Amino acid sequence: VTGVGASCGSPTGGAACPAVSVAGNAVTATVATLPAGGSVTFTVTGTATGAAAIANTATVSAPGGVTDPVPGNNSSTANTTVLAPDLALAKSHAGSFTAGSNGTYTLVVSNSGTLASSGTVTVTDTLPAGLSFVSASGTGWTCGAAGQVVTCTSATPVAAGASAAAITLTVGVGSTAIPSVLNLATVSGGGEPGSLAGNNTASDNTIVTAAAANAFAPDGAQTGVPGSVVFYPHTFNAGLAGTVTFTTSAVATPAVPGWAQTIYRDTNCNGTLDGAEGLVPLAGGVLVSPGDAICLIVRDSIPAAAPYNAQDVITVTATFNGTQVLARTDVTTGGAAGGAGLTLAKTVRNVTLGGAAGTTGTARPDDILEYTITYTNTSGGPVGNIVVTDATPAFTLHQSAACGALPASLTGCTVTSQPAVGGTGSVVWTFTGTLASGGSGSVTYQVRVSP
Fold it and tell me: How far apart, in whole angstroms, are the C-alpha atoms of residue 264 and residue 297?
């Protein structure tokens, strides 16, 4: 009890009210005039600060030199049960939040006290960095936001033992919220005593993941003789649900007519056209769900009139839901008309995660990827003056390049050009000697996925 006050009044039987002294919660008074049969009444007031029962005891004592024949009735206790609301706040969400999307919190105010709330109940939620206010609502609640501070108020009483209508808080989730955010909210007001505010704060730790993404890979480069065809495998990995379509465009140098590209669906994703896979070109959109892999093969026909070292630069485009465009590049180089056909095959391996090399794969920021380019002479005679060129893929940083073991007919291999570590650009390997018919070797380079 605080703010204690006291007064004397209603004297009877010739009694007289004395001055009353209040010191803290102690009330004292000396009644100088109290005839037999007389009485005085003291009124004590104060403010209860909690919901516990209060026992208030008053005592009276006879003046010095006077003997009270019945001292057993010289004290009296009044017991008072204090009723008060005790507000509590609970905050929750479902699942994990995804960066770039909205997330939803649910806030519920309950009253575990012995009295309904009165006046205005206020819920305050200060959003952490990475979250932004979108909306907040609830039956009986008026909500708004100023910067990161969301405030909801309600004048609807919350009955003892009951809960108020839930507040639905929708937030925007930014990339800086990854990997998690801790969101705190408080409830106040409603006539709740300060001593009962210990359960007025709720926290919710929320896991935030990066947005799912689509991926399309790899680039390709091959050499073929005039009048032949080369094949380029590609894989579209779906991170989102929707429709993807595939197209090609090409620029030939010199502009010799007869280059032609056709896209086929590689249904078993083995990198070759098996059975009926090469009979009907892929046309129209393909419905995908998260986790789907759509494999395809681009067939490039080399015209019979293509001169030595003629090139066809093919852009293979995957268009997702009509808006997102992912593109890869295939480069076909014409070999010597006499039959010198140098073919290239490219694989990738995630060094950080381990595993085998393949034409497709997955990677995380800062993972090390190793690309292996295998060259093979499929012609009937030797091939000389071999130069292999590749470029660091988009969103990667160069780390190193190396020549593999040389086949017996080649006399040397040198990395004649490469970007600085952490840079981007072309990697060039130059060979000396000749590559015999059927001969094969490989070169490698490593990149780091950009953070």
Answer: 5
Q: ∠ CA 75-78-79 to the nearest 5 degrees? A: 140
Beta carbons within 8 Å of 116's beta carbon, 6+ residues apart: 85, 157, 158, 159, 160
CB atoms near residue 271 (< 10 Å): 19
Q: How far apart are CA 27 and CA 41, in angstroms?
A: 13
Q: Which helix (H) or strand (E) holds 179?
A: none
Q: Mean pLDDT, to the nearest integer, of 89-107?
A: 94
pLDDT at 338: 47
Whether the Cβ atoms of residue 376 and residue 437 lie closer than 8 Å to each other: no
Q: In the prediction, which pLDDT does 280 show?
A: 95
Helix (H) or strand (E) holding 406: none
Task: Provide the β-strand partners of residue 189.
Answer: 121
pTM: 0.51
Beta carbons of 346 and 319 less than 8 angstroms apart? no
Could you read off the pLDDT of 398-430 as tens digits, one per residue? 999 999 999 988 999 999 999 999 999 999 999
DSSP state of 379: S
Instruction: Give CA–CA dist 312/330, Å, rounded.
Output: 8
